Amino acid sequence: MRRTLSFAIDEGNKKISNRLPYNWTQHSLIAHAAGGIDGMVYTNSLEAFEASYQKGHRLFEIDLAITADGELIARHGWENTYGQHFNPEEGPLSYDHFMKSLYFEQYTPLDFNAVLELMERHQDAYLILDGKVSSVAETRELYRKVEAALEKTKKGLMDRLIPQLFYEGDIEVFRQLGFQDLIYVVGREDYTPESVAVFCKEHDIRVVSLSRSRTNEEFVKTLKTNQIDVYMYTFNDMEKMEPYMDMGVRGFFTDMLSPGKRKSAE
């Protein structure tokens, strides 16, 4: 028996209303760290974003970190060089050093202001913000910088930004700043499927992000019963996604896959 494995097709050329809560969940694939480029991942680079956009992605994830001198940039923390020239053991780069050091000698680093400029140019794109934080206090510090950057942007852009929440205490930070749509990334605090569903319902969080080790039929069913979608991280093989799609998982973070791809499986 043959079956078709497919994703919701992103309508990249159609302007999407930014006013409907969680309307970005029509997109099944999330370009992880702006998406892979030339086999390279985690660059969060200008070229990666533009290449992913050209492939049809409209839902992006960008990592946010802070430089040694306090500037907000797009980077997956400081534990790996990702082809930039520095020693991770010496801690974060300065802003100037970061901006002048290409990823893998060819991909352009972005600060958060440049990320927002990309979002202003691409009005049909949505952006998931992955702050590299380890506490609510760090979330608050990072999002103060996000808030300051947003003050200089056009009205309405904030509606297309979706922070990831790692700690239940983050909810106060995000609501005070006026963020509407959120993703709860489960795993840093004690939880059960029921406790996650209750927390999300109380705070109108309609998307949860799960790792493979935390995803099972009971968890997905509990969330779906409460009208909460599940996105999983990170997949680059459609066949490996199939059993999770059968469970009811809504979508996936990916480095290499493109929206609209279809694959037949036995």
Computed over alpha carbons, the radius of gyration is: 18 Å
Count of folded domains: 2
Percent of residues in beta strands? 15-25%
CATH topology call of the largest domain: TIM Barrel
* Order of strands, widest sheet: 2-11-10-9-8-7-6-3-4-5
Spatial gap, N to C terminus: 6 Å
Q: Please name the fourth-level CATH homologous superfamily of the largest domain.
A: Phosphatidylinositol (PI) phosphodiesterase
| SS element count, helices | 8
Q: Kindly state the number of beta strands.
A: 12
The profile of the biggest β sheet is: 10 strands, mixed
- Unreliable segments of 5+ consecutive residues: 1-18, 262-266
What is the level 1 CATH name of the largest domain? Alpha Beta
Question: Would you kindly provide a written description of the structure presented here, covering whatever features stand out?
Answer:
It is built from eight helices and twelve strands. By secondary structure, the protein is an alpha/beta fold. The chain folds into two domains: 158 residues, TIM Barrel (Alpha-Beta Barrel), CATH 3.20.20.190; 74 residues, Rossmann fold (3-Layer(aba) Sandwich). The strands form two sheets. Strands 2-11-10-9-8-7-6-3-4-5 form a ten-stranded mixed beta sheet. The protein has a two-stranded antiparallel ribbon with strand order 1-12. Strand 8, helix 6 and strand 9 form a beta-alpha-beta unit. The longest helix is centred in the middle third of the chain and has 15 residues. It is globular. InterPro entries: GP_PDE_dom, PLC-like_Pdiesterase_TIM-brl. One of its GO terms (molecular function) is phosphoric diester hydrolase activity. This is Glycerophosphoryl diester phosphodiesterase.
